[in-house]
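Troubleshooting: if your tokenizer reports a length mismatch, compare your output against this known-good record of 418 residues.
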Amino acid sequence: MQYDGNLVLSAYHFSDPGYWYTGTLTTNVSLVFNNYTASMYLVNSTGNNIYTLTGNVSTPVEDYYYRATINDHGNFQQLAYHKSNSSGWTRLWRAIDEPCVNAICGVNGMCFSQNNETSTCRCIPGYIPLDPNHVSKGCRPETVVNYCADPSMKNFTIEVIDDADFPFESFADLARVKDVDLEGCKKALMDDCDSLAASLVDSRCIKKRMPLLNARKSFSTKGRQALVKVPMKSSPEHKKKNDFDVRVFLRISVIVTATLAFCFGVSSIYYHPAPRSFIRRRRYSNANSIGINFQEFKYMELQKATNGFSKALGRGSSAKVYNPNRVEEESEEEDLVLSDWVISCMAAGKLETVVGHDPEVLSDFERFERMALVGLWCIHPDAMFRPSMKKVTQMLEGTLEIGIPPSLSDQMSVSNYQ
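Known-good structure output:
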């Protein structure tokens, strides 16, 4: 009972101003149950009956128990129970003369009642249950579509449900179009991207605002039509094909491309004659211990053979290599590994030294240069600086700039490599 004398049923959960009310707008109104007549009614300050609730009452009154309650559907009702010979409670009166009341099927749910006594909940077309075991908890869109953005705004159909409606027009209406038929109402709904549903009642197209509440198909909605926007579904075959093309194929392509690029870059360095001499030397640095006998040379013989060690070929992991064959042991602080040798060639602008005079590589040298840099990034000693597969692909395709690894740039004589 409101302070203004109006008896109202309201769903506070949905901020509903009232789905049933008596309209008794006067002061000092009271709800009365009469013990002698078993009837319920509203009286004003002078005790006069201003609104009768109960209709037919079982007689004699003293043979029955009576109670008034609001059931789980939100309907106010009065019931009677025979004291000596009864099979249960019998309803004498209810505020709303149907079971589909108060959004009992939740948001985007629709109440169905064929016998005006029982009801079932289903989802509005285009929606699926939030909880498959309890549809009354409401429904959510099966496919989320922005109807106000191209090209999605036309990617839907209008489904018509006969003898159905979204009642409580004054609170749920978005806009109204008068003097239209079913096709005119369809067009009005299709052209309005802000509305998802409409009701066609007596040649009036009533477009509904969100959320969609109180949708019902019952005796009270006979002759009406409910219209709902339903997004178009992709066929299972088309969806499966798209999933394969976009996800599986792309993922495999990225991995294979990056792996091949890395292997090509490393192989180009590894199999060149100059760096191979460093690798072979390190592999057989302890050859005697595994039973391999190399010819030994005296220092004077090596000095003579190398013309006084005048021409150095490069530096291995722990020694310098001279032409034709002299190894000078050095400390690890002065050593250069294979990757350092490649970096030093880059710093000097002589990366072609790594591949010698291979015409196939030199014909597309810019590509080799890019692959060599990517390979050095991938074998960076600090895992935090190693690029992801996505960045590797972007660097190989030329969409992402390739720089010198931070920890290696200090070894170069220039601050930036172009």
